[in-house]
Amino acid sequence: MRSGNLGYPRIGKDREWKKALESYWAGKLGEQDFHTELKAIRLRNLKAQQERGIDVIPVGDFTYYDHVLDTAAMFGLVPERFHYEGGYPNLTVYYAMARGSREATACEMTKWFNTNYHYIVPELGEIEPKLTRNRPLDAFREAKSELGIEGRPVLVGLYTFLKLSKGYTPEQLAPWIDRLLPLYGQVLRELEAEGVPWVQIDEPILATTLAAEDLTHVARIYERLTKEAPGIKLQLQTYFEAVDHYEAVVSLPVHGIGLDFVHDGGRNLQAVSKHGFPEDKVLGVGLIDGRGIWKAELQSKLDLLQTIGEAVSADRILVQPSNSLLHVPVSAAQESGLEPTLREALAFAEEKLEELVLLTKAGQSGAGAIASELAVSKRSREALQQSPSRARKHVGQRIADLASQPSSRSGHADVRREAQQQRWNLPLLPTTTIGSFPQTPEIRSARLKWRKGEWSDSQYEAFIKEQIKLWIDVQSELGLDVFVHGEFERNDMVEFFGEKLDGFAFTANGWVQSYGSRCVKPPIIYGDVEFTSPMTVAETVYAQSLTEAPVKGMLTGPITILNWSFVRDDKPREEVAYQIALSLRDEVEALEAAGIGMIQVDEPAMREGLPLKREQWSHYLDWAVRAFRLSTSTVKDETQIHTHMCYCEFHDIIDSIRAMDADVISIETSRSHGELIGSFEEHTYDKGIGLGVYDIHSPRVSTVEEIGSMIDRALRVLSPEQFWINPDCGLKTRKYEETVASLRNMVLATEQAREKYAVKP
Ligand SMILES: Nc1nc2c(c(=O)[nH]1)N[C@@H](CNc1ccc(C(=O)N[C@@H](CCC(=O)N[C@@H](CCC(=O)N[C@@H](CCC(=O)O)C(=O)O)C(=O)O)C(=O)O)cc1)CN2
Ligand code: MET
Ligand SMILES: [Zn+2]
């Protein structure tokens, strides 16, 4: 039995990686120094795994931005608009694909399965792929020569890569497989020639709901690839769910299969027990939760390993995390600020490696070999379980009483629309923004000073008020119709609420990559969640006091708070969602009572929380919608509830979006190059809706014409009476000048559209 890892956080203990990327982009770090710095980070990450005694260390999982983008770059799949001239794309082209450039809009970015990690969507189009650089080989050589590590190269599997790409029709799938097969073959042959014994090929798509023809394609791919390089062994890795069609997957002609035994709902284990496991293959046992942050219940993991051991001999077992550790923070050791009971119950990437090594040791020599560690881990989990915060009486009562809580608005949508229009008298095509304005270095450093105690509360509050005032003035000057306060007091839309609600803890350095250099510090829900006092009322009311225009109150919804936090594992997620929903309802009511007439409850993570298996969708959506409605249903007819979603594959969940019953919804659109708009040809939607008219993830400023054409496209399928004009998402990552210039263009484009679409008397 051996221990293995599947991928390691890139960002470094202190987010060195993020800082290096941003310095390079800002022109503060030269290209050569940038490469040097990234190499140092890469080697430190490998060393962390080596020092903890991991037997199988992945190489090639490191990236300059995103591993899917790397795969596209490796095959020369660079869309024409980037003026690419062959070879492995240089940094300018590479980062233009990721972030856009003056001339070219960025590639689309979307969620990596059901995580908060985002990848860059490859665009296949007319391009003929070719191997521009064997990245896994380079990574292998470097780890070997620099650290003496015989690493295991990691590749995004061909089928997953294609399924995550765009720019081809269903009929073109098979020809694209044919085009990529020789290139994957070449990568493998070169690795084989180098003497690389094994590669890890990630095919997480195999854990989603598959059709029979998917399996036919996958079988064809792996039959061919094992022949291309017969001297190299392929470990086919799946994660995030049980594999669909277990028997077909484990009989693929590869040398090893990696399965997730944490997020599989027990189905992988059932399948192994029922059907056995091929005698000629290695089983990668995803035993340690690669997405959660709790210490493992080591004894139950050993039991699981034992059950698997009945079907698979020990020499063919690899003990590994359920998925790449990319999704958890680097080290819990530095979290000295946390309450000891909680800290002792945590395991981040480094601690997970230690757990893997322990379990492997026990697997090799029996549980006795780790008796004292087993006891410690048991004690720390139990101590947390006994903490009074786990079972607050008042919260328990509210949940028990859930059935009697209102979960629908009293007035019908038409009645509400009327009442709201009377109250606000908004023009045709009202303009607004999604909530946040730029989080400048000045704001971040002010917050840091306040946190360190260098600034008093009142000093910091006064500073935040200045920012709010500044941006209320900007919004008036721009002529927007519905204002926001700007979210300057928030570090992050989820972490902020986590800090204010009971039952949450927040770390000092528990960062996880979200996209590119952007990281999040998910709060930890360790106890029952409860509202303590108003969280957003003061800032919102202050903003409203400065203007006649409506200011939207701005809250993060229950499902997004749930999905973007690390959640306790002793209660169903559904129940935790209701606890959050009821706490947010208290905030919604406080805002309404303070005179705020529009309240936006953001649910960008609603779609991402969708289970990977279709058959589980309706259950999830039912409780997710119920949680949203629990938070928003008690307001008066004339109070307008908004919601916002980004990266929304709208057609997947249109019924649930309708069922949320928000008066106005805003959805990201532009980075998918308007594809979302097309779905309204098939689906009707009759409430207020804003489809983002420009991409906020890129520093590029859209022109009036570009925005105008987005509006035109949307109004081909939606009515001007229901349409709102807004950017795709919040503007926190943008600079002041970009923001003002883009919004100015947005308002100009709206004025033109108003003339064009006004109902002529
Ligand atoms: N949780 C979450 N998930 C999300 C989103 C989101 O907004 N939140 N949006 C979507 C896209 N993802 C995003 C994820 C992160 C960021 C983002 O801007 N992250 C910031 C960090 C935000 C933050 O928590 N900032 C803190 C701490 C910032 C910090 O690094 N402080 C410095 C010091 C600051 C200075 O002096 O400059 C330090 O501690 O060293 C604050 O403002 O207080 C970043 O990586 O830079 C944006 C979008 C989807 N998923
Ligand atoms: C990721 S969705 C962001 C919504 C939030 N209100 C903002 O503007 O930042
Ligand atoms: Zn958004």
Describe this structure in words.
With 761 residues, the protein is α/β, with parallel strands linked by helices. The protein has two domains: 2-77 and 110-388, TIM Barrel (Alpha-Beta Barrel), CATH 3.20.20.210; 414-757, TIM Barrel, CATH 3.20.20. It has an eight-stranded parallel beta sheet. A seven-stranded parallel beta sheet has the order 11-16-18-19-20-21-22. The radius of gyration is 26 Å and the shape is globular. Bound molecules: ligand 39S, methionine and zinc ion. Residues 434, 604, 644, 646, 729-730 line the site of zinc ion.
Quick synopsis:
This protein is α/β, with parallel strands linked by helices. The chain starts with a strand and ends with a helix.
Proportion of residues in β-strands: 5-15%
Second CATH tier, the architecture of the largest domain: Alpha-Beta Barrel
Span between termini: 80 Å
Might you state the CATH topology name of the largest domain?
Answer: TIM Barrel
* Distinct bound molecules: ligand 39S, methionine, zinc ion
Instruction: Work out the helicity level.
Output: 40-55%
Mean pLDDT score: 96
Number of helices: 27
Globular, elongated, flat, extended or rod-shaped: what is the shape? Answer: globular
Largest β sheet strand count, sense and barrel closure: 8 strands, parallel
Supply Rg. 26 Å
CATH class of the largest domain: Alpha Beta
> How many individual domains?
2
- Which structural category do the helix and sheet elements fall into? alpha/beta
**Low-pLDDT windows of residues:** none
Number of strands: 22
Binding site for 5-methyltetrahydropteroyltri-L-glutamate: 15-18, 111, 116, 518-519, 564, 608
EC number: 2.1.1.14
Active site: 697 (proton donor)
Enzyme class: transferase
